[in-house]
Amino acid sequence: MAAQTPDEVNPQLIDAINRGDIEAALALYEPDAAFITEEGTAVGHAEIRPALEAFIATKPSLSMEPLETVRTGDVAVTRGNWKLAGTGPDGAALEMSGRSFEVVRQQADGTWRFAIDAPNGRDD
Predict the structure, then answer these.
(1) Contact at 8 Å (CB) between 74 and 86?
(2) What is the pLDDT of residue 30?
(3) Which runs of E-coded beta strand occur in the chain?
(4) In the chain, what are the domain boundaries?
(5) What is the pLDDT of residues 61-70, one digit of tens each?
(6) Which of 8, 62, 72, 87 falls 20 to 30 Å from 79 in CA-CA distance?
(7) Strand 40-43 to 29-37 pairing
């Protein structure tokens, strides 16, 4: 299901990751979207896929507290606090959290997708 508002993009991504559905997760990104990681910036679905697969591999329970959405025209910035509980590669319990910011853009069909996703983009 495609996001109909800027505020639906993150919840749909969280749902897809929690279900382990990489294709549904990738569908929420524009074809040339940027995903900012600690290692650098992944651009496009082929580069974003491994980053999302790493989240999915933890068999996560991912949640987000939305903080803010600012929209002008067909572009919006969203911010939120997220938490992930899962299993690390060694089988040990894993907990991660961050404060994200995202740029989402309305598509020609009226749906919204990520243009830029920075899951660890905000410290304040």
Answers:
(1) no
(2) 98
(3) 29-37, 40-43, 61-72, 75-87, 93-106, 112-118
(4) 6-118
(5) 999 999 999 9
(6) 87
(7) antiparallel
Beta carbons of 53 and 25 less than 8 angstroms apart: no
State whether CATH 3.10.450.50 applies to domain 6-118. yes
Task: Fill in the amino acid letter for 3.
Answer: A
Task: Convert the pLDDT of each residue in 11-37 to its tens digit.
Answer: 999 999 999 999 999 999 999 999 998
**pTM for the whole structure:** 0.92
Query: Cβ atoms within 10 A of the Cβ of 50, count?
Result: 12
Average confidence score pLDDT of the chain: 93
How far out from the chain centre does Cα 101 lie?
Answer: 9
Phi, psi of 4, rounded to the nearest 5 degrees: -95, -15
**Number of C-beta neighbours around residue 32 at 10 A:** 9
